[in-house]
Amino acid sequence: MDISVVIPLLNEKESLPELHDWIVRVMNNHGFSYEILFIDDGSTDASWVTIRQLAQTNPCVKGVRFQKNYGKSQALNIGFKKASGNVVITMDADLQDSPDEIPVLYTMITDQHYDLVSGWKKKRYDSVLAKNIPSKLFNWAARKTSGVQLNDFNCGLKAYKKDVIKNIDVYGEMHRYIPVLAKNEGYDKIGEKTVIHQARKYGHSKFGMSRFVNGFLDLITIWFLSKFGKRPMHLFGALGALMFGVGFISAAYIGIVKLYKIYTGHTAILITNNPWFYISLTAMVIGTQLFLAGFLGEIILRTKNKSKRYKVSETT
Predict the structure, then answer these.
(1) Residue 32 phi, psi (nearest 5)
(2) Alpha-carbon torsion (305, 306, 310, 315), positive or negative
(3) 34-40: strand order across its sheet
(4) Distance between CA 105 and CA 203 in Å, rounded?
(5) Which residues are within 8 A (CB) of 57 and not within 5 positions of it... i.e. 6 or more apart?
(6) Do 122 and 87 touch, CB atoms closer than 8 A?
């Protein structure tokens, strides 16, 4: 099969028939073999009824319905597991992503050998203050932190080589950072294509301003996991040793100064009356805690058997 189109959705019953017909028209015009996977993320409208109707008229349509709203990352996760196409296309269900982009994205994966191609909504039809400006700040921070040079991390329209989506684990709210997850797994040929962004035709956006706060927090998480996820002692141990060393040297200096003043007959205050003594003691305590955090992290990694420590690309 050439293409799997994975579409996570929440309360998009009005747009689904139009989106389905549009995708089918593009596929037939270019002679692609395809499947369309609609992932209903706990919709409370008639979205699932519409998906079942589409599946009855088109055998290429498949649907998955969640018991409740689990989030876009979980929807993409199960969509990736069920996708069987050589190229996997993801897009939103609100008709703001154009299926006419699919042939070019497919060619970039198959002919230009990209591992992943992300869309870039260069011209947006969203609110400037509520979405555009926060999105630019978010993407700037993501580029600086991850090293992946994309202008629009959160664009729903992306194309993947099949191997990529089978070897990454999208969880929590990490759908924004799939390119970073792919890079961390060794898929570093990541491209970008300017895509058409259309104004929303039905309904309203399901994401509020909180997604930017959550996005920055997730960015910190993925940075830590990519740098120190397999070796937490390298971070916590180093910081702990540094803090403990600074505290120990400071405490030793205070003690030496006290002994020197006593030896030379100068007046010396009690060590416990010296505020720097408590600062030194606090630094040593924090250093010890950081070191123990790294140590416990290493123990957890050694005893965790569920996740693979490596993925084999090829054997002969």
Answers:
(1) -85, 140
(2) positive
(3) 61-65, 34-40, 3-9, 87-90, 158-161, 116-120, 190-194
(4) 27
(5) none
(6) no
Dig out the tokens for 111 from the structure. Answer: 């002919």
- The CA-to-CA distance between both ends of the chain, in Å, stands at 25
Radius of gyration, alpha carbons of the chain: 26
The predicted-structure confidence for 127-148, as pLDDT tens digits, reads as follows 555 566 777 777 787 787 777 8
The C-alpha atoms of residue 284 and residue 243 are separated, in whole angstroms, by 6
Could you give the CA distance from residue 220 to residue 233 in angstroms, rounded to a whole number?
18
Please report, for residues 158, 178, 181, 224, the alpha-carbon distance to residue 153 in angstroms, rounded to integers and kept in the order given. 10, 8, 12, 18
- In angstroms, the CA 76 to CA 266 distance is 72
Strand partners, 62: 37
- What is the C-alpha to C-alpha distance for residues 22 and 96, in angstroms, rounded to an integer? 12
Q: For residue 296, report the phi and psi dihedrals to the nearest 5 degrees.
A: -65, -40
Residue found under tokens 């349509």: 61
At 258-296, the pLDDT tens digits run 888 888 888 778 887 888 889 999 999 999 999 898 888
Q: Are 145 and 189 in contact (CB under 8 A)?
A: no
Residue with token string 């230009």: 112
Strands 61-65 and 34-40: parallel
Give the phi and the psi of residue 275 in degrees, each rounded to 5.
Answer: -60, -30
Neighbouring CB atoms inside 10 A of 308's CB total: 8
Amino acid found at 65: R
Give the Cα separation of 101 and 36 in Å (integer).
16
User: 12 by DSSP, 3-state: which?
Assistant: coil
User: Quick one: which of 284, 143, 293 has its CA closest to 228?
Assistant: 293
* pTM for this model (two decimals): 0.73
Q: Among the residues of 98-167, which ranges form H helices?
A: 102-110, 133-146, 162-166
Structure tokens at 197: 């962004």
